[in-house]
Write a structure and sequence with these properties.
Blueprint lengths: L2 E6 L6 H15 L4 H8 L1 H4 L6 E7 L2 E10 L4 E9 L8 H15 L4 E6 L4 H9 L3 E3 L12 E6 L11
Parallel strand pairs: 4-5
Antiparallel strand pairs: 1-2, 2-3, 3-4, 5-7, 6-7
């Protein structure tokens, strides 16, 4: 199975597929929250225009997986919306998407990547650990009520902001 990962930075070519894949996953285990609806209705506004990236996994030019790099500040970004279509799971596509996001975050100079998850999603948590993430304490500004685990990956431990006086 040859999967191509493309990275969207400036424009959202696959917005309907991004929405479909994410909605199917969320609805299968949870429910769509207000923040889900906002982001999925306009990923250009809520991800790309804020400096983020969207990653699309393609198999034979058909989108089968997604994830998003969401910028929090100069040092921190978030891995969000890592989803693989139910018919394409267990082929390492989620891992490829995650590695692509980590490489992009490192290239962009972020110090850490954070993520929010749910412990009922055991395969997802195992994937995050395989990618190198470790559990951190609760984040007060979490967006989703479904999230009960918070993880982090330090990718550039020596990154720091430069201040000019």
């Amino acid at each position: 199975m040859s999967v191509e990962i493309i990275i969207r930075s400036g424009s959202m070519k696959y917005s309907s597929e991004f929405r479909r894949i994410n909605e199917e996953w969320i609805i299968s285990s949870f429910y769509l929250e207000k923040s889900d609806i906002q982001v999925l209705n306009d990923p250009q506004k809520y991800i790309l225009d804020k400096g983020g990236n969207i990653f699309i996994a393609l198999l034979n030019d058909e989108p089968i997986g997604t994830c998003a790099l969401i910028v929090h500040d100069a040092l921190t970004c978030e891995l969000s919306r890592l989803v693989v279509d139910v018919n394409a799971r267990n082929h390492g596509i989620g891992y490829k998407l995650g590695r692509s996001l980590i490489e992009k975050a490192r290239e962009r100079g972020f110090k850490r990547i954070i993520l929010e998850g749910n412990t009922n999603m055991t395969a997802s948590i195992a994937l995050y650990r395989k990618l190198g993430f470790h559990e951190i304490s609760y984040r007060a500004n979490t967006v989703h009520t479904r999230c009960n685990i918070f993880m982090e990956l330090d990718i550039n431990p020596y990154s720091q902001l430069e201040y000019y006086i």
